[in-house]
Amino acid sequence: MANKMYRPKKEEIKTQKTSTNFSVKKNGNSKKKPYDEYSKDDFVAEIEQLKKRKKYGVVWEEQEEKFDKDTIGKLPVLKEVKTREIETDKKAPVNLLVEGDNYHSLSVLNYTHEKSVDVIYIDPPYNTGNKDFIYNDSYVDREDAYRHSKWLSFMAKRLKLAKNILKDAGAIFISIDDNEMYQLKMLMDDIFDERNFIANFIWNKKNVVQNDARFASTNHEYVLCYAKNIDQLGKFQLLPRTEELDARYNNPDDDPRGSWTSVALQAKSGTEANRYKIKFPNGVVWEPVPGTYPRLTKESLMKAYKEDRLWFGKSGKNVPRLKKYLSEVKRGVVSNSILLPEDVGSTQSAKETIKRILGINVFETPKPVGLIERFIKLVAGEDGIILDFFAGSGTAGHSVLRLNKTDKGKRQFILCTNDEDNNGTGLGVATDICYPRIKKVIEGYTDANNHKKIAGLDGNLKYFKTSFVDATPTDDNKKKLTDQSTEMLCVRENTFEEVLNKKDFKIFKNDRKHMGIVFDQSAIADFKKEARKIKGPIHTYIFSLEDEDFAPELEDMDGRIIVSPIPEVILRVYRRIFSIKI
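RE: above sequence
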């Protein structure tokens, strides 16, 4: 009677139905069918699944994306668009712009940049229901019953891949508003672990009050920040002190130790046993007011008096305060979690920046360069790598270029974006907005507002598109993946300058190292002849249908050739990501 219709008792199902369909997993396949077609076995299977679910956290209906079907049985690779390469300084870092669905871009980066990125900043769709989030080629509106599930499914896939790309000492910053803020916080707690939560920055995005708002003028957005591993990150870097902060220090008594400000001798924390009353040699009597306690012991306070570190006012008889010297403070400040337009820019200033560069308004709520610069400064050093896989207008790239120009840094950016039509304007996001902006910022442009020439910030850029090869595990497909892997390997090794281009092997370099690719094992001997002309080790990728190390063929090279078999080194990553046999 296993297939007889079964009506469960209330106590057997203690979960709230959110739709008329349940999802039952049998033999690894997920099947949906109407509630009234459920058998007792179906209900038992569903209850067992529910018991395995987390007792606390965000739960959503997994949604299949269009590319899941379009690219089934295929593996992503990179293909360079040579006509869009930009080079102004061969010694400067090479930045990357990848056009394609960011899920596939992140898949490739999981191989080329695993645990390599210092800072991830993203500005994903906010899912407002107002044509800002496209899912499976359609806008998701407010009436969509699966609106939040689609967004969470979309974000979870990408955030899991992004986590693998971050350094252990890296951090991710995500702009968001109230529509998905609380869902995102719980999703990030799940993927990155809530112990790695750092801060929820509040960005005051505009200086004006919106008087036509129905209830309140919403002037802020959020930026959620998580560390990959908070113990490895340690702490944020200090921000440079401003002239305004230093102006608080002066030297009214010509103290030879320099400018100072003063702080009270009392604090709110302490015990009654710590309280005391003291009379200084100048006749002033001091004791903490009720409810407060001394900052210093009686001995330390008297020592400060003898060293002229107390200020009794111009009269010399006021309540004393402790001097705090500018020379003794940290040469930097901790970031505030509230970010003001005058410090990091506003939505309006961001729109004006883009319009001056491109001559048009392209987004309603772009982020200012100063905002992303702030986050980069907190985590990345002068040679850090910054990733934005919702690149949009390319503000993150602009931020990196400006920082490098300011402090002569060697930071690199990676921008990933699709080329979908921007809000019906006919402009492709990658080809007509992001790339032109970066190109103009690097090379210089004429300000669209005042027609003045703006000097370029300099820099280099490689432009790639995602492409695909067949994943069916045949020898022929492995060879095809190897043949298509050149750009990926150059990106991984950061070696873009071609030294030698033979039919069966290639050699590339940067200013620090060389990289070789051998497409046919029979060419190893010829490759070795060229390798002997090069000083230092050469990381070399050699085609192999198996996971070979080629030690016998290379034993006469004194360990200078470091071998990785391809495509196996790539396939190991893709097996983890796509969970398929390849």
